[in-house]
Write a structure and sequence with these properties.
Chain A: InterPro entries: N-acetyl_sugar_amidoTrfase (IPR020022). Chain A: It comes from Leptospira brenneri. The complex is a heterodimer of chains A (434) and B (256). Chain A is mainly α and 434 residues long. In chain A, 39% of the residues lie in helices and 8% in strands. The longest helix of chain B has 11 residues. Classes of the chains: A mainly alpha (434), B alpha/beta (256). The interface between A and B is medium-sized, with 21 and 26 residues.
Chain lengths: 434, 256
C-alpha cells in the first residue's frame, strides 16, 4: 500500500456545471425524495463493513412506483398488517425455550444504554422473565451524558460487560476509515455488529437480541420477514478477505505496525462456531412494535435516562444516538456523501411514527441538516491525528499524520459527489432540496 | 400570607396539545381547547399556553387556536411561543391572552421586554426561562424548547430581565420537565430570593408533595403543571385539597 497523500483541492469545474456527469458510490443519478417522509433515494442500505473499501458501491433504499420509500411502506405494515399479538406470542415461545432457571444468563442484549437498548434489556428482564447479560462496545469518546446514561442502564438492574478496544488501534482505524472511506464511525460499527455474537460464543449463551431491524429505516423490506439477523453482518469465513478502515488485515499488520492481536476485537465471528453452538441473533423489533419515542419514555420512567442537554448538531433531536462525540461527524460525513443530513434521518423516523407531520419534518430538515459539527471538532481532529510519538510506524504511512481543520476541509471535498453538490458563489450547496 | 396559584400548563404544537420529557420526545395528547376547558372547570387559577415549536419552525403564534380556546374560560391566560415583536404580542392580547411569555426572542432582543412592558404594563410581560443545571447552584438559560444553549447564567439573566421590565417569571427546569421527579427546588428558591416579581415554578411535578415543597422551600408564588393533569394522574381538585391540608394557602375556588 502506498503512503496516504495529503488531499488536493478538488477540481471545482465539475461542481460548477449545471450538468454534472459524475455519480459516486453507485448512487442513483436522479435524486428523489419519499412522498411520505423526507428521506431521499440516495440513502444507502446497511453494508457489510468488512468488505467496505474505497471502490465499494452502495445499494440504496427502494422506492415503490408511487414514490414511497420502503421504510414508510414497512411502517404501514407495522400499523395495519402485522399481527402484533401473534408476534408477541412468538416472543414468549422463544423466551420460554431459552429461559434459564439455574442462575445462568439466557440471552445477550448488546447496547449502549441509550433508549433502545435500555428498553430491550429491561423489558426482557422484567416482563418476559429473561436473564440478559448486556454487552457494550464502547463509543470512541463518550459524551458526559452518554456515560451517565450507560451507568443508569446498569443501575436499573443489568449486568454488563463493557468492551473498550485499544485506543491507539481504534484511533488508527478511525483515521483510515475517515481518510479512505469518509466513515469515522466504522470502527464502532465493527463491534456494534459482532461483539454480541462473539460474547455469545464466549459465554455459551445461544440467544442474542438486537433492537429494531434496520429495515425500519430502509433496508430491504424482505429483511423484516425474518426475526433473525443476517449472518453476513457478523461472521466471515475467510479472514484474509477482511478490510478494516478500507485496509486489508495484511497491510495493517505489515505496513501500519499493528499487532494481529490488536485486531482481535474487530474481527468477525467464525460462522462454523456460530452454527455449532446454535447461536441465534434475533431482532426484538420483529416481535414488539418498535417506537423510538416510546423507548425514550420507557427509559426515562424505568431508569432515569436523560436526553442530552443540547440538541445534536445537524438535527433538532436530543434523545437519539447521543453517546459518542464522534457521532456528530458520522452524520456529517454521510451528509457529504449521500446528501442526507442527520435531521433528515431523525425527521423521517418521527414522521413515520406520526410524532411529527411531514410539513414539520421539511422545516426541520431545512433548518438543521448539514450543519457543521463544531462542538467537538477540535477534539475529534486531535483524535484523528497520529503523531509519530504515539504511532511510530503508522504515522510514516501518511504524508501528513496530523489532522487539522484544513486537512478535514480538503478531505471533505474529495467525497462530494458532483451529482449532489454544486459550488457556486464560493459556497457548497446541495443541488436538490425538499 | 402568600397565596399559591395553581396553573395548568398546555404546551402546543400545531393544532395539538403535546407533552415531552426533558422537553424532548413530544407526544400528542389531544385538543388544547378541550383540555383547557377541563382544567378551567376543575378550578385552575390560571392557564399557560405555550407554542413549543414556534421558534423552532420559525412560524407564528397561536392567535387562531387561542380564540377558539378561550371562549368560555374566565381565568387569566398566559400565552407564549414565537412572540418576536410588540405586534405579535398585541395580536395575542387581542385574541384573549392576558399575559405574554417570551423566551427565545427576549434572549435575542432583550429590548423587547422593555417595549412590551412599557406598552402593556409589566404585569403583562412574563419572562419565560428554560433553565438547565450546569453545576452546583448554577443554571444556564436555554431557548427553543430546551434545545439551544445561550451561555447565559439564569440568575443574572432574570435579574436583567426584571430591570428591563419583566413582571413575572415562568421558570422551567429542563432537567425535571416531564420526569415527575419533583421541581428543581434549589433553582426556584435561588430565583425567588433575588426577585420581587412572582415566580412560577414549572417542570417536574409528580405529586402534591412536590408542590408543597416548591411552595414552602422554593418560595414559588405559583406552580405550573402538565404531566399530572394531562395523563389524569391527579385533578386540580385533588391537588388543591391536598395542598390545603398541608398548609399551603390557595386562592378560593369561585367559578362563575
Amino acid at each position: 500500500m502506498e503512503k496516504i497523500q495529503y488531499p488536493e483541492e478538488v477540481d471545482l469545474s465539475k461542481f460548477q456545471t449545471d450538468e454534472p456527469n459524475e455519480v459516486y458510490y453507485g448512487l442513483p443519478k436522479k435524486v428523489a425524495f419519499c412522498k411520505k417522509c423526507v428521506i431521499s433515494n440516495q440513502r444507502p442500505n446497511s453494508a457489510v463493513e468488512y468488505k467496505h473499501t474505497k471502490d465499494s458501491k452502495k445499494a440504496t433504499i427502494h422506492f415503490d412506483e408511487n414514490g414511497i420509500c420502503d421504510a414508510c411502506n414497512f411502517t404501514e405494515r407495522k400499523r395495519h398488517t402485522i399481527d402484533w399479538n401473534l408476534r408477541e406470542k412468538q416472543l414468549r415461545e422463544l423466551c420460554d425455550k431459552h429461559r434459564k432457571t439455574d442462575g445462568s444468563y439466557d440471552c445477550i442484549v448488546p447496547g449502549s444504554g441509550g433508549k433502545d437498548s435500555f428498553y430491550a434489556s429491561h423489558i426482557l428482564k422484567t416482563k418476559y422473565g429473561m436473564h440478559p447479560l448486556t454487552v457494550t462496545w464502547a463509543p470512541h469518546v463518550y459524551t458526559d451524558w452518554g456515560w451517565k446514561n450507560f451507568q443508569s442502564w446498569i443501575h436499573a438492574g443489568h449486568d454488563n460487560y463493557l468492551m473498550t478496544p485499544n485506543g491507539r488501534v481504534h484511533r488508527l482505524l478511525t483515521r483510515l476509515s475517515t481518510e479512505l472511506l469518509f466513515h469515522p464511525f466504522q470502527a464502532f460499527m465493527f463491534g456494534q455488529k459482532s461483539l454480541a455474537p462473539k460474547m455469545a460464543l464466549l459465554f455459551d449463551i445461544p440467544l442474542v437480541f438486537y433492537g429494531e431491524n434496520e429495515a425500519e429505516y430502509g433496508n430491504p423490506i424482505g429483511d423484516t420477514e425474518s426475526a433473525q439477523r443476517d449472518w453476513s453482518y457478523f461472521t466471515v469465513e475467510d479472514k484474509s478477505k477482511v478490510f478494516l478502515g478500507g485496509v486489508s488485515v495484511q497491510d495493517l499488520t505489515e505496513q501500519f505496525g499493528v499487532d494481529r492481536n490488536d485486531l482481535q476485537p474487530y474481527l468477525p465471528a467464525d460462522p462454523t462456531q456460530i452454527q455449532k453452538k446454535g447461536i441465534e441473533v434475533h431482532y426484538l423489533g420483529y416481535y414488539l412494535k418498535w417506537h423510538p419515542q416510546s423507548a425514550y419514555y420507557y427509559a426515562v420512567e424505568h431508569g432515569g435516562f436523560q436526553a442530552s442537554p443540547e440538541r445534536t448538531p445537524g438535527t433538532y433531536s436530543k434523545y437519539n444516538s447521543i453517546d459518542d462525540r464522534i457521532d456528530d461527524f458520522h452524520y456529517f460525513t454521510t451528509g457529504i456523501k449521500f446528501g442526507i443530513g442527520r435531521a433528515s434521518y431523525d425527521a423521517a423516523q418521527e414522521i413515520r411514527s406520526a410524532d411529527i407531520t411531514r410539513e414539520e419534518g421539511v422545516a426541520l430538515v431545512k433548518k438543521f441538516d448539514h450543519e457543521f459539527p463544531e462542538r467537538f471538532a477540535d477534539e475529534i481532529f486531535s483524535y484523528l491525528s497520529l503523531p509519530d510519538t504515539e504511532f511510530p510506524t503508522a504515522s510514516k504511512m501518511f504524508e501528513k499524520p496530523i489532522m487539522d481543520r484544513e486537512y478535514f476541509r480538503l478531505l471533505t471535498n474529495q467525497f462530494r459527489s458532483p451529482h449532489l453538490w454544486k459550488f457556486e458563489e464560493g459556497k457548497w450547496r446541495l443541488r436538490h432540496g425538499l | 400570607m402568600r397565596k399559591v396559584r395553581i396553573i395548568a400548563r398546555l404546551d402546543i404544537k400545531g393544532q395539538n396539545l403535546i407533552k415531552g420529557v426533558h422537553m424532548e420526545g413530544l407526544r400528542v395528547i389531544g385538543s388544547p381547547a378541550e383540555y383547557a376547558h377541563k382544567y378551567y372547570q376543575q378550578g385552575a387559577d390560571e392557564l399557560i399556553y405555550i407554542d413549543t415549536v414556534a421558534s423552532l419552525y420559525g412560524r407564528n403564534n397561536l392567535s387562531d387556536l387561542l380564540e377558539r380556546s378561550v371562549e368560555n374560560i374566565f381565568i387569566p391566560l398566559t400565552v407564549g411561543g414565537g412572540i418576536r415583536s410588540v405586534e405579535d404580542a398585541t395580536r395575542l392580547l387581542r385574541s384573549g391572552a392576558d399575559k405574554v411569555a417570551i423566551n427565545t426572542a427576549a434572549v435575542a432582543n432583550p429590548g423587547l421586554i422593555t417595549e412590551i412592558s412599557r406598552r402593556f404594563g409589566s404585569q403583562c410581560m412574563v419572562l419565560s426561562v428554560q433553565a438547565k443545571s450546569i453545576g452546583p447552584k448554577k443554571w444556564e438559560v436555554f431557548t427553543e424548547n430546551g434545545r439551544e444553549r445561550t451561555g447565559l447564567d439564569v440568575l443574572e439573566w432574570i435579574q436583567k430581565g426584571i430591570q428591563l421590565g419583566a413582571g413575572e417569571i415562568l421558570l422551567t427546569s429542563v432537567d425535571r420537565e416531564g420526569t415527575r421527579k419533583g421541581f428543581d427546588v434549589d433553582l426556584v428558591r435561588a430565583v425567588a430570593e433575588q426577585t420581587t416579581v412572582p415566580v412560577i415554578a414549572s417542570g417536574g411535578m409528580g405529586n402534591v408533595a412536590h408542590l408543597v415543597q416548591v411552595a414552602k422551600e422554593g418560595l414559588a408564588d405559583a406552580v405550573a403543571m402538565a404531566d399530572v393533569l394531562h395523563y389524569e394522574r391527579l385533578t386540580i381538585g385533588n391537588i388543591k385539597e391536598e395542598a390545603s391540608s398541608n398548609g399551603i394557602q390557595l386562592r378560593k375556588y369561585a367559578k362563575s
